[in-house]
Amino acid sequence: MATIKLDQLNVYYKKGNENIQVLHNFNLSIPQGLIYAIVGPSGCGKSTLLYTLAGIITNYTGTLTINEEKPNPKKQSIGLVPQHYGLLPWKKISSNIHFPQVIRKKQIDSIRESKILEQLQITHTLQKYPNELSGGEQQRVALARAFIQNPDLLLLDEPFSALDALTAEKSRSLFVELWNEHPVTTVLITHNIREAIELAHKIVLVSPTPGTVKHILNYPSEKEVRNKIKEIW
Predict the structure, then answer these.
(1) The domain spanning residue 24 has which CATH number?
(2) pTM of the entire structure?
(3) In sequence order, what are the beta bridge partners of 21?
(4) Which residues, 6 or more positions from 220, have their beta carbon under 8 angstroms from its beta carbon?
């Protein structure tokens, strides 16, 4: 499991000849084995933070370390569940699930895989293609792909937002069961306050663009979260 430290992190993107700042002096320390939910208004840099942690975005200043090293997907096991799941439509589900290990040339733990597939109730999907699955099944396949690689760090970008209420509730419940059995340092991006409270150990409230950390709340009530949000948004 990973320990994450961000110190005075500033992230930019190019717009023509101009550098646009997305995150400003972002300071955060995440101990290993906890779930942190990042909550903020649209455009505040939540997804940018996630992709910087994943080592995909590298245009930043300040310090960002995972177990005292810079993010490096080639060296670190980072499980990423993007907002629309990132499944390859031309590959069967079994190939989608194995893709991270194939890329990193890592051996697949078949016992771990079987257990996770069973827990997420998607064993029957392995020989299907993504477009043959429901949204909830696709989401659980993306979770399985991340957990099966036994990641040091799990990154979730609005993983339940595209699902209807009942499907999202079921998927969250399955996620909690799976995480409790395979705990991993997790950063969850969500706009859903109740979801953040249900899933996370701590909630990080981020300001409007450029995003910076305003409050870190420990097991807060929904009322506390909403009162803090009123102060900063």
Answers:
(1) 3.40.50.300
(2) 0.94
(3) 12
(4) 197, 203, 228
